[in-house]
Amino acid sequence: MNVLTFDTEEWFHLLDNDSTRSEAQWVHFEKRIEGNVGRIIDILDSTHTKGTFFVVGWIAKTYPQLVKRLSEHFEIGSHTMNHQLAWQQGPEAFKKDVSDSIHLLEDLTGKKITAFRAPGFSIRETEGWAFDILGELGIEVDCSVFPSHHAHGGMPSYPGQTPAIIEHNGTRIKEFPVVYKTIGGKHVVFSGGGYFRLCPYFLLKKWTLEHPDYMMSYIHPRDMDANQPMIKELNYIRRFKSYYGLAGAERKLRNWLTEFKFVDVRTAVQQVDWSTAPIVKL
Fold first, then answer.
1. Adjacent-strand bridge partners of 167
2. DSSP 161
3. Which of 93, 105, 200, 234 would bridge with 239, disulfide CB 3.0–4.6 Å?
4. For the segment 126-160, what is each residue's pLDDT rounded down to a tens digit?
């Protein structure tokens, strides 16, 4: 089962960078989301593929017609309102951020929002309260867990790379984690972000075949945009991670979706036997 998801944010929604941290800065950047999402829709239509779009609330507020268009054909989930790391917010700010995004997305689409992903996979073991809040807000499925150490979060205690049920204070949430390959002791998250752009297609294909039971992808619209501006404040390493491989990513995604069958999150939920899924108690 290959699950296709898109973290629907602008090219400048980079985490841990002062010049792109908040809405006050975002208004000064060129907007490219409509063209980038349009390219993704063309690829999905031509490959007859469905995916889940985790939409930042700021995108929905700024481009309501884009979200309505997506909702006509694809599942919409929340990616918070303002694209901030969960562990930097705390419970009160996190609840307002997620709640605002859910209400806005539901108003625009006329559909209940039941799926969520935190920016940067930023829910850790110490943020079990986040799952209580998600359950309170009507979220049934989460895709925020990185089952190892991660720069922005990570949950090393998570049992492997497989769907599970996360339990905290009586709240239960179905979880679809990201997957990775271990190379030289380093976890390579080949199915999204920088590693997706960095890896040649033959490796992407090989590693996908090595995850026949479950594989979660997470693509960003900016990954398809070879002509996006350069953010000057980024250091050399961060610049490499953010911009390498942009030119070939669109072709790579098209090949991937042609050679492999992908489903959206709501279809994946139906394909899992949750009665036998591991239970992760935080």
1. 172, 281
2. S
3. 234
4. 999 999 999 999 999 999 998 877 677 778 888 88
